[in-house]
Amino acid sequence: YPDSTSGKFNFESLDYGWKYSLQLDKLGHTFGGFISTYFSNEAFTACGMNPDDAAFYGVIGGLFFQTFIEIQDGFHSNYGFDWTDELSNVLGASYFYIQRKIPALQNYRLKWSAGPSYRDSSRNAAQIRSRLLVDDYDGQNVWLSFKMHNILPNNIKDYWPKWLCLALGYGVKDVELIGYSPYRTAFVSLDYDLIELLPNLGTFGNWLVQTLNNFRLPAPALQLLPELKFIILFPFKISF
């Protein structure tokens, strides 16, 4: 990227890398490794590869993209190659591949969501490292979505709609603000399996639905941290 330098390659401190953004950045990299591998796998599949080869080379393609960015950070004067980021990239890419080998793991899907940061006036006026969506962690959450219909016991599952999932989410607030103490947020939320919910839309339409299913859409949520709160349509601030 433009402000990379051709200076000496350096490494980020492991302690700083792990603690940065209260680990939301690590979960973001895990999802990044997963979704980069997903798109790489889809590209190889579209080229005619068989599923096993597409998944294998998809991992290579996804990690190449993620690692390329990490290497640029290594040459950046203000950053450094972060092993904790790279390990998170590997974890996400590996999870995609393992899901293909162990179908039961497809009942546990990584998802990502983003919405308004909802900072008050003083926070919005504070010094913020970045207002770019991918860097402004206050508006992001990483989720693990459970396909409850497939997980519940047989005598219960028929009462649970196939398209309705439960998701656990993690987020942070105030991590990019100067003069404020960051804190963690956690949620349990309803979620949708769009593949089960929507009708057959044809080859391309079904692919779009499959792709969108990697992202958590607005739904009711119960905030667990830092305080108990019911949010009618998370991430929008309608709660009681």
Outline, from the CA principal axes?
Answer: globular
Radius of gyration: 19 Å
Number of helices: 9
**Looking across the biggest beta sheet, what order are the strands in?**
1-2-3-4-5-6-7
Describe the main β-sheet briefly: 7 strands, antiparallel
- Unreliably modeled segments: none
End-to-end Cα distance, whole Å, is 43 Å
How would you portray this structure in words?
This protein is of the alpha+beta class and about 240 residues long. It is built from nine helices and seven strands. Strands 1-2-3-4-5-6-7 form a seven-stranded antiparallel sheet. Strand 6 (about 230-235) and strand 7 (about 235-240) form a beta hairpin. The relative contact order is 0.13. The model has no long low-confidence stretch (mean pLDDT about 90).
Keywords:
about 240 residues, alpha+beta, seven-stranded antiparallel β-sheet, 9 helices, 7 strands, globular
Q: How would the blueprint of this fold be written?
A:
Layout: H1 14-19, H2 24-46, H3 51-74, H4 83-101, E1 108-114, H5 121-125, E2 140-146, H6 148-151, H7 154-157, E3 164-173, E4 183-192, H8 194-197, H9 202-212, E5 219-225, E6 229-234, E7 236-239
Antiparallel strand pairs: 1-2, 2-3, 3-4, 4-5, 5-6, 6-7
Helix pairs in contact: 2-3, 2-4, 3-4
